[in-house]
């Protein structure tokens, strides 16, 4: 066989396979690699290896489909460990169709429920209304006994080319059918969600409904790239335009310069729509998807300007999110938020948006946090709304802190009180700090 002919055969064997319906990017890449090995095995006349690979691929795609599309209570790992076999997986996948119009149990479907419902549907022959059931029943009828990666197949001595090609054909048919079914169940892409939010930012219920019909990999993309990247772009656009106008004023006529405010307002609306999509997707997402979204925020903060970073922390991020972050990302995000909260120019929006940060403040940063907020609370040159935001943030976050952090906050506030007694011209400031300390002490005793 010439190199050119072999390449053509490889392309022919590989071409039709599609794993775009797989929920995990890592699993999708692994299956693509396995399918490539299956192709090579057939070209090398390694029939038994080809059948084993085909069985492994078939089981993996069925497990992913059942758990994700069928909202099965079990995890993929649980199904893989149990060694349940291809036939039960096929019946469970058929069962996914059967239960499509039934009320989903709170915890999801039991795998055995899906198997039972699918087996009944398959045996009844009444499959015209079951897209997956009809296609898979036809495909599996002749091949279900030999497409299996386990011991029985390994002990067979006679596995020929016909069986290997049939196994590959079954995998192709199975993937094609599951891909089509997944497209019916998950018609929306990340870009569709973003477009809807830009056109109708108030349609939260519709956005949530669209997310429920969006493939998990697309939700991951929304959180780890699509929404954060769009948000960052809308933060940059007004600043970059203003810089160009300022640097090259003669290149812009008066009408273009006057239109800057309209453009800035439009960018702000667009940015807020991007933030809404991120927040809805985050609330909807799995723990792994939330982790990916928080990693995107950590990356944004690393590259952002100061103004953009504040917008990220006030519009995209909520402190309660941080339980899902990796240790590295959580440390970076908390550190950056505290740096901005403790800065002399912290603004009201930031101070009001970081509710819950107390739970994440390490004892060694407690004194800095306390001094900064007390300074902001009692500096007359600071706007009243910002002073109030600083005071209430400190007061309310005390209860969220671990005991060691609380002790450092209380000690710092007491020292600040002693200092202000001798230096403040306002008795009200002294009384406010005394009341604050008393409230904390009472809370500690209760």
Strands, count? 0
Biggest beta-sheet profile = none
The DSSP helix count reads 22
Which geometry do the CA atoms define?
A: elongated
Beta-strand portion reads: under 5%
- Indicate the low-confidence ranges by residue numbers: 1-14
If you average the pLDDT, what whole number results? 84
- Radius of gyration based on Cα positions: 30 Å
- Order of H and E elements: HHHHHHHHHHHHHHHHHHHHHH
Helical content (DSSP H or I, runs of 4+): over 70%
Instruction: State the secondary-structure class.
Output: mainly alpha
Distance between the termini: 84 Å
How many separate domains?
3
Summarize the structure.
With 446 residues, this protein is mostly helical. 73% of the residues lie in helices and 0% in strands. The chain has three domains: 172 residues; 131 residues, no CATH class; 97 residues, no CATH class.
């Amino acid at each position: 066989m010439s190199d050119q002919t072999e390449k053509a055969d490889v392309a022919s064997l590989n071409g039709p396979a599609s794993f775009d319906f797989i929920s995990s990017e890592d699993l999708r890449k692994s299956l693509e690699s396995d399918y490539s090995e299956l192709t090579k095995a057939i070209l090398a006349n390694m029939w038994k290896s080809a059948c084993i690979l085909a069985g492994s691929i078939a089981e993996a795609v069925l497990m992913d489909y059942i758990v994700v599309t069928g909202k099965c209570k079990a995890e993929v790992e649980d199904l893989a460990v149990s060694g349940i076999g291809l036939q039960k997986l096929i019946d469970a996948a058929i069962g996914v169709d059967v239960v499509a119009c039934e009320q989903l149990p709170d915890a999801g479907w039991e795998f055995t429920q899906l198997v039972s419902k699918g087996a009944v549907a398959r045996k009844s022959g009444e499959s015209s209304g079951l897209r997956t059931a009809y296609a898979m029943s036809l495909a599996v009828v002749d091949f279900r006994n030999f497409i299996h990666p386990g011991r029985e197949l390994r002990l067979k001595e006679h596995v020929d080319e016909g069986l290997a090609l049939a196994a590959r054909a079954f995998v192709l048919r199975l993937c094609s059918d599951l891909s089509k079914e997944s497209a019916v169940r998950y018609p929306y892409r990340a870009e569709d969600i973003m477009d809807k939010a830009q056109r109708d930012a108030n349609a939260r219920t519709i956005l949530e409904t669209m997310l429920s019909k969006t493939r998990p990999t697309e939700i991951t993309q929304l959180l780890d790239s699509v929404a954060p990247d769009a948000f960052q772009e809308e933060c940059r656009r007004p600043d970059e335009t203003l810089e160009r106008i300022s640097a090259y004023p003669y290149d812009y006529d008066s009408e273009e310069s006057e239109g800057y405010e309209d453009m800035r307002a439009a960018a702000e609306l667009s940015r807020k729509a991007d933030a809404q999509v991120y927040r809805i997707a985050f609330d909807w997402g799995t723990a792994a998807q939330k982790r990916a979204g928080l990693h995107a925020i950590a990356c944004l903060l690393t590259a952002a300007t100061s103004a953009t970073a504040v917008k990220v922390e006030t519009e995209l991020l909520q402190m309660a999110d941080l339980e899902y972050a990796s240790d590295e990302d959580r440390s970076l995000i908390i550190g950056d938020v505290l740096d901005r909260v403790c800065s002399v120019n912290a603004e009201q929006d930031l101070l009001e948006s970081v509710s819950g940060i107390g739970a994440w403040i390490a004892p060694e940063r407690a004194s800095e946090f306390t001094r900064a907020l007390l300074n902001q609370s009692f500096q007359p040159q600071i706007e009243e709304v910002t002073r109030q935001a600083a005071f209430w943030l400190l007061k309310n976050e005390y209860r969220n802190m671990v005991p060691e952090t609380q002790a450092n906050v209380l000690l710092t506030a007491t020292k600040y009180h002693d200092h202000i007694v001798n230096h403040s011209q306002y008795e009200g400031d002294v009384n406010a700090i005394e009341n604050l300390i008393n409230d904390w002490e009472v809370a500690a005793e209760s």
